[in-house]
């Protein structure tokens, strides 16, 4: 008869943590990228790359991004992938282009061609809540936040990150984003608007389905997403204060004791620009809208001074007013902005460098970039992912080119244009058995 021995309590307390450490699953990210035009060949290529890259067992989450070149076959994509690749959850979308990391570990941006990117994530000690939101019928933004939580069906307790993908046909997108901020205020939200296509189904991928509306993944526990939003602009001229505005039409601005129409203020700025900058004004002029307090104090941080870059929609030459893609209020601060490749590179390098100083070794990087970026902005391929690799030499990168990018500015989530919205998957806290710093 076997005898049972019980370890002394002193030994149990020393051996227990060692055993738990030994049995703890390791966080992993395994990636694959293909440009095979035939769907079956693409899935076989992805499966082969993942096996060669060390994929084994069942992943916690599979992120799938495919170009709209596969739109007619989109409903077959997830069933084929799920048959070849084991993962508990699947989420993603179709995009105007794809971002992924190839078998040699190099990230690429595939534009204007077929492409599918798959990233398998193992996230021990994390909880993932996937959800699908039908288009229309949003809860009341003036009602209790619990109505939104009930509608989404994911619990906010402990949630710190959210991946969010929205179909381009979804109505009231800005209200939807605001409602999710209302219901999940502690969750940093990163994602984008999926690509458009002519097929009869949506552009969103969830488990084994193609759906419309919106899909998301709420994350809590040991891993979180750090957002980095690179709007790619540089300011020109002074910071103005709105003196008169009606909805999204700015009628009068002030700079200290000087007041004028927005057109008059811009004309004064033009006199100080060089010829190249003046040419940019003709097609790359935007308005930065402050999204924090109206007046900065000496205690404000740089994030408090964040400007949300918005399109200039039109000019009234009779009154000198301008229409902006954002509602404006009297007392709000604004600043004209120019976008070009150099400004985009410089801003993105600064933001990514700051992220590296804060979290030097992310598990993965997610990129949701505007269709107006890429080769059209930089004049060469892989412009955004190359900037990431300058700071993070080995991090796998995945994502999509979107019809609008989702990410936070000054503490609130916004829908952007011409932007690179990054999400870096990093530890939410140090391991329990690591020494205190």
Structure in words:
The protein has 437 residues and is of the alpha+beta class. Helix content is 25%, strand content 38%. The chain has helices at 9-23, 39-52, 74-84, 145-152, 173-183, 262-270, 275-283, 341-358, 374-378, 383-391; strands at residues 28-34, 59-67, 87-95, 97-101, 107-111, 116-122, 126-133, 159-166, 188-193, 204-206, 209-211, 214-221, 223-230, 233-235, 240-246, 249-255, 258-260, 285-290, 307-316, 321-324, 333-339, 364-370, 397-402, 405-409, 412-416, 420-427. Strands 1-6-2-3-10-11 form a six-stranded mixed β-sheet, with helices on one face. Strand 4 and strand 5 (107-111) form a beta hairpin. Helix 2 (39-52) packs parallel to helix 3 (74-84) and helix 4 crosses helix 5. The longest helix has 18 residues, at 341-358. It is globular, with a radius of gyration of 24 Å. It starts with 8 loop residues before the first helix and ends in a 10-residue tail after the last strand. The model is unreliable at 1-23, 293-304 and 431-437 (pLDDT under 50).
């Amino acid at each position: 008869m076997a005898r049972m021995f019980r370890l002394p309590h002193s030994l149990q307390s020393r051996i227990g943590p060692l055993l738990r450490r030994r049995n703890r699953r390791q966080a992993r990210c395994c990636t694959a990228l293909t440009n095979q035009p035939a769907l079956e060949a693409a899935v076989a290529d992805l499966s082969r790359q993942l096996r060669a890259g060390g994929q084994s067992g069942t992943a916690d989450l599979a992120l799938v991004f495919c170009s709209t070149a596969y739109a007619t076959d989109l409903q077959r994509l997830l069933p084929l992938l799920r048959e070849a690749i084991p993962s508990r959850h699947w989420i993603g979308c179709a995009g105007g282009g794809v971002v992924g990391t190839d078998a040699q570990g190099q990230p690429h941006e595939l534009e204007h061609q077929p492409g599918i990117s798959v990233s398998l994530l193992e996230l021990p000690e994390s909880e993932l809540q996937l959800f699908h939101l039908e288009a229309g019928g949003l809860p009341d933004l003036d009602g209790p936040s619990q109505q939104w939580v009930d509608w989404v069906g994911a619990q906010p307790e402990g949630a710190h990150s959210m991946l969010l993908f929205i179909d381009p046909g979804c109505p009231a997108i800005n209200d939807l984003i605001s409602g999710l901020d209302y219901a999940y205020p502690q969750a940093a939200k990163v994602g984008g608007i999926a690509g458009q296509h002519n097929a009869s189904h949506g552009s969103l991928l969830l488990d084994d389905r193609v759906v419309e509306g919106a899909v998301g993944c709420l994350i809590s526990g040991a891993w979180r997403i750090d957002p980095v939003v690179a709007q790619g602009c540089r300011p020109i001229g002074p910071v103005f204060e709105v003196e008169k505005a009606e909805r999204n039409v700015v009628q009068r601005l002030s700079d200290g004791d000087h007041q004028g129409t927005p057109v008059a203020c811009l004309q004064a700025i033009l006199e100080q620009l060089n010829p190249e900058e003046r040419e940019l004004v003709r097609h790359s002029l935007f308005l930065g809208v402050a999204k924090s307090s109206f007046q900065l104090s000496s205690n404000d941080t740089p994030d408090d001074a964040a400007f949300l870059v918005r399109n200039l929609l039109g000019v009234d030459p009779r009154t000198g007013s301008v229409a902006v893609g954002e509602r404006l209020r009297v007392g709000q601060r604004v600043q004209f902005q120019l976008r070009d490749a150099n400004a985009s590179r410089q801003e993105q390098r600064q933001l990514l460098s700051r992220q590296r100083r804060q979290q030097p070794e992310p598990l993965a990087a997610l990129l949701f970039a505007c269709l107006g970026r890429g080769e059209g902005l930089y004049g060469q391929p892989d412009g955004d992912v190359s900037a990431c690799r300058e700071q993070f030499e080995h991090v796998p990168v995945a994502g999509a080119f979107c019809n609008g990018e989702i990410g936070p500015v000054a503490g609130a989530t916004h829908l952007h244009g011409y932007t690179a919205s990054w999400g870096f998957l990093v530890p939410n806290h140090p391991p329990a058995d690591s020494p205190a710093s």
